[in-house]
Amino acid sequence: MMAKYEEPLLNEIEEDLPEEKHDVERKELNIPNISRHRIMKHFLRLSQMNYGVDTGFYPLGSCTMKYNPKLLERIAKMDEIKMVSPLQDESTVQGCLELIYKLEKLLCRITGMDAFSLQPAAGAHGEFTGMLIARAYFEDRGEKRSNVIVPDSAHGTNPASAKMAGFNVIEIPSRNGMVDIEALKSVVDEDTAALMLTNPNTLGIFEKGILQISKILKDAGALLYYDGANLNAIMGKTTPAKMGFDIVHLNLHKTFATPHGGGGPGAGPVGVKSFLAPYLPVPRVVKGNGGYKLSYDFPKSIGKVGMFYGNFAVLVKAYAYIRMKGNMLEKVAERAVLNSNYLMEKLRSYGFEVPNYGRRMHEFVVSLSKFKEKGIRAIDFAKRLLDYGFHPPTIYFPLIVDEAFMIEPTEDASKETLDEFAHAMKKIASEDVELLKNAPYKMPVRRVNEVKAAKEPKLTWKDL
Amino acid sequence: MKEMMDFIGIKSIDELFEDIPEEAKCSIDLPPPLQEMNVEEEIKKMMKKNKTFYEMSSFLPILKPHYIPAIVDEIVGRQEFYTSYTPYQAEASQGMLQALFEYQSVVAELTGMEVANSSMYDGATALGEAALMAYRIKRRGGIAIPSCLFEAKKQVLKNYAKGANLKIHEMPCKNGLPELREYNGIDAIYIENPSFYGVIERRGDEITEVASKSDALIIAGVDMLSLAIYNPPEYADIVIGNGYLGNYMNFGGPLLGIFACKRKYIRQMPGRIIGATIDASGKRAFTMTLQTREQHIRRGKATSNICSNEALCAISFLAYIAALGRNGLRKVAMQNKNNAHYMAEQLEKIGFEVPFKDFFNEFVAIPPVDAAKLNKKLLEYGIQNGMLLNNPENSILYGVTEMHGKELIEEAIKKIKVAMEEIE
Fold first, then answer.
1. Which among B49, B60, B165 has the least Cβ separation from residue A98?
2. pTM, whole model, 2 decimals?
3. Where are the alpha helices (DSSP H) in A117-175?
4. What ipTM was estimated for this complex?
């Protein structure tokens, strides 16, 4: 269980160090002088009020909260990584360049793409990069294509990224939890630049019509974009290339076990088929006689999307993970999918509703809508789960499922954990309405008033 | 596993993947798994090919070596922080939320702004996002930036500006600072302090006047450490920067982008924002807030597509600031300034010209020999000299921090002198 402290804010902790005199232009600086021991206690206490992957089951749908191997952390702490500047002469960063080069090659093999850029700092950043590549490709061909299609089940970042790159977004409805092929056909035309798709989709369903979908796009001269958020489900079974995708972004912090860091840093590499490689961001790492080089010699490149070459320390961790797993990444996918299907059937056997019957991949979405008449919402279930020691699933997403509870157990959950979780869900379903509405009880704080936070924004300690 | 398979009614694992069309199926083309120790060995071997700051004194600007107290590593090494996800469930994330609230507070204090978000990817994407934010507020479609700007920032801005079709005007630079002038049809003027050439920007009134005549917002790009001793850009509407404090160089990432602004623009701000509120018992609590700006709710109409940010780097930043306190920050900032000025003086003594004198920890110096040749020669002596610039001609941009003590500088100067003689 998590600790319940009333830990003051930094500025509320009594300053216990004497003021030192410095003759400086800036006279006022409200940063407290506090002893190191008190600072350590402060952050230790804060950490003890936070749920992590090592704390317990964290089945957050679409986020792939798998165990972060500790070796990855140790490796990334090397001075040869930490204390290297991105602007150093190439001859002094051969190790970094080699790792980037080799990781690109590994990601090509996992996805079937022909070239990668590791520059994007996160998944959405990768999507934006991918959309800029699509834009540059059509501009280069002298085609004016202004529309990007996304299914209504897509991650919110998809339409937002397409929009940021200057495209109009056309949303198409789902049918039986999958892309409605007829609806797709009706919107694809010579103005279509791309379709953004994640497969398996956010309902955890594999888009069975994927080859038909890719043909529709190809016939129209448009591109197919793969949102790699759900790659964990299919490694070793198929690849985005085999499915007909042209551009891919991966979330190394999901599939490849680099930690999420409380919201970041991630890494969102972008891979493309060879005909799109000239448009990838620069610099690209190339291998020559004298070793590895950062090359800017790609005249059709979209240029840069980040300050340097990506979140390198994250890339190192992903490389280590891929080397640790090797071709057994296939087993990762198998266990993740087995866990998900097992938990789904277990919950179904307890009377929970999972719309759109059929097989699921790495995740599935429960609809808690039948509890609405009792006055119980998905959020109440989520908060009560906290009292049972579980991190709740993603809630109210995807938007197309009423009272959605999006569950992704990952390959790391044991049968025992899945059984305990299902059992907790069953128990909660029979609990008193009032008990649920007021949950949680055992957390560091009781239910947090989010409405008040938005209505009267208090965003720094000065606002308090 | 057998038990689980029985429960869901499958005989083989392959049945789980039967929805994948036969033509799309394939196996994975990777070598077999390595043992942990072999993975560690392989990567160590690879990384040995790098030269660290400890092996090779470096005077590169932009992203510089800083000393990070051990307590920072200890704090961000807590699994509760580094393995957790975005704090969607506030009750299970109070630690991260309070820390990020403190981060926002510290950023607001340092930058002199009223509000801050909980991080962008880096200083360059923060600039791109700031330009888009200014466009949402002013709706004109342009931004004026200094022509003297780190090339990567220009390129990233260009990409962020594409979608909205923003026109980018470049203000020519003179004496290390952009020449201020009025523009028509711009949403914002972007000013850096210190400038790309390291020069302290002291023209607050003039900047305000020009921006006001152009009816444009002012975006200020700052160096966060310099704000411990220099006055914050109070004239700005949006303040951005590279939030390197407490974070290692890591060959360029992860970094974090600082993003702060005036309160009245908060609803146009990109990124995650943490707010204070109360829980059901009336106790203070923290939560993500103003989420209706964000992509997971507004989708295509969001203020930005950003989802994952650099939260853990923000915690490193906060832990660093907390550990140093006002005393420590000022001390380190003064060390940076003093060391940089000492280096500049020493360079002048051996014949370099230092054109701009009012600087913090980065400065331009022009050697009496060919700068490119000099840098190449110095590599042989185990010195990574500053970054070469074309303008001013044959110049070098130096970066000096608290890690560049007197001894290190003097040792480097000796080698620079020898290298210069050898070139001539």
1. B49
2. 0.98
3. 123-140, 157-164
4. 0.98
